[in-house]
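Would you be willing to look carefully at the protein I have copied below?

:::
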Amino acid sequence: MFRLLDPDQFRACFQRFTAGLGEGGGRVIAIDGKTVRRRPQSSGRPLHMVSAWDCEHQLVLAQIATDVKGHEIAAVSKLLKMLYLKGAIVTADAHNCQRSIAARIVGQGGDYALALKPNHGVLHAQVRQFFDGLQPDPAATHTTITDDHGRFETRTSLVSNDVEWLQQHHRWPGLAAIGKVTRVREITAKPLARTTTDAAYYLLSLPLPAARFGEVVRSHWGVENRLHWPLNAVMNEDLARSSRDNSPYNLAILRHMALNLMRRDDSRVSLRGKFNLAGWQDSFLTKLLRHAGPDRGAIAP
């Protein structure tokens, strides 16, 4: 059955299923891709799913597939068209830090925080040099310290609205600020004790306060920890054996549906435990399915 289903129609059903999450100012939507690595599709290439992740609600909003990671940029543009972005901040990794994507986000009424790395050689070098020579006001920076599993991490966030000089050369769509996050990691457990320092740079379409900027860029990694990791570690996606016709794409959408149902349930049970209970107890399965009621609006306007 899943080989024969039209994945575009099934994806439309998924969007109705996640309806009601398309509004609310200030929310962060992370865009990221994941390759299903067990075996290739009938096309001979592995399925690469690009997903939109609501960082606040920890739910998949929409997804689109491509059979080549190099085609992800075009897929992201199509994915953004499916979303209601007004008032949202869209985050993406350096691979998707592209003019076309920035223009799409701003054109749909959203804002962006895009990671900038050396794949944009001149632009990245200029932003890095600017921050290296900057003497920031301590009041304009924000620092957080975390201590987890024997690792101390200090993150210092800084935002600058001085981008006119940059826009004269690059004309980046909607650019209003640039940001820098400096991360100092100290591992105390022997014999691996060490300290590392690195810096990450971002293009922003709105001048966020340093504290909010730090929250936004860090929340992006929820798509890895809360979506991609459970798909592999709990749902065994990379071991999926389906490979013919539309089945890999449709079953990937179905896994997103199942994960969303689990996330919407507030039972004090682990994610793996919820999957087990859904298989063991009809009452728990019925409770989960109630979260899929049709009493919400649509994601897309």
In short: The CA atoms of residues 265 and 287 lie 8 Å apart. DSSP finds ten helices and nine strands in the chain.
